[in-house]
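Suppose a colleague, Dr. K., hands you the sequence of a protein chain of 257 amino acids and asks what its three-dimensional shape might be. Before reaching for any lab equipment, you can write down a predicted structure in token form. Begin with the sequence itself:
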Amino acid sequence: RFGFRSAELDSGSFVPSWLILLTMLALFTLFTIAAEFRILARIAGVAISKRTAFGVSVIGTAANLLPVPGSAITRFIVLQRAGAAKAAITAALLGAALAWLGVAGLIAGAGLAGSSPLVAAAFVAGASASLGGGLAILRQLDCFTRDLLLLVATELTLTLIGIARFLTVAAMLALPGTLQETAALAAAGPASAAVGFVPAGLGVRESLAAALGALSGLGAAEAAVIAVVDRAIGLGILVPAAAVTVGIGFRLDPKNK
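The predicted structure, expressed as tokens, is then:
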């Protein structure tokens, strides 16, 4: 039976050290997104400063709270202002999205292998096609192989950080779950991000996590609770970070120093 009440929570395990770790992981997520954006900029044929990349990662992630693909729009604006061609920007953004979905899907497939082998096989097949398609699109931009490898490594890092956040939330709330069961939730993030008309994938990510949790053996309720708490903590970091970024005068300008 699904429902938040069916997840047994232990409030006694809720200690500040878990919140500190989750805060650090949330910040690492933003820095990784910034690194990904700089790689995408090179693939699209332009250069972006570290300050601009981090500002775009914060503002873009916050813009996803709107009922539009805020992150993609923010990136598109900055890359266009940096001099990248519209076709190159579109290809870079699409290729990166497919690559992230592919990497996360492969990890999710591994997480499902023990409990749902047929579903896991389908995940691996679909994820392989997504990753291969994304890299094929990016390859058409005549970019360096090194940047493609760096992009895949960055998407892998982003996915692993997401799993680490889920594991930390589970430990904080004393919820059951192994590394393999939690890894199955990896695909929830990139899949929900693809639903651009839903603000930040609200509800979509949690629903996908619940479905994947049910398949992996973690439990639908437990997975949903983990996803909800992780999002709440992430927003708690993102909102003030966005406010500070705007407050210090950051603009969507590739010439930020």
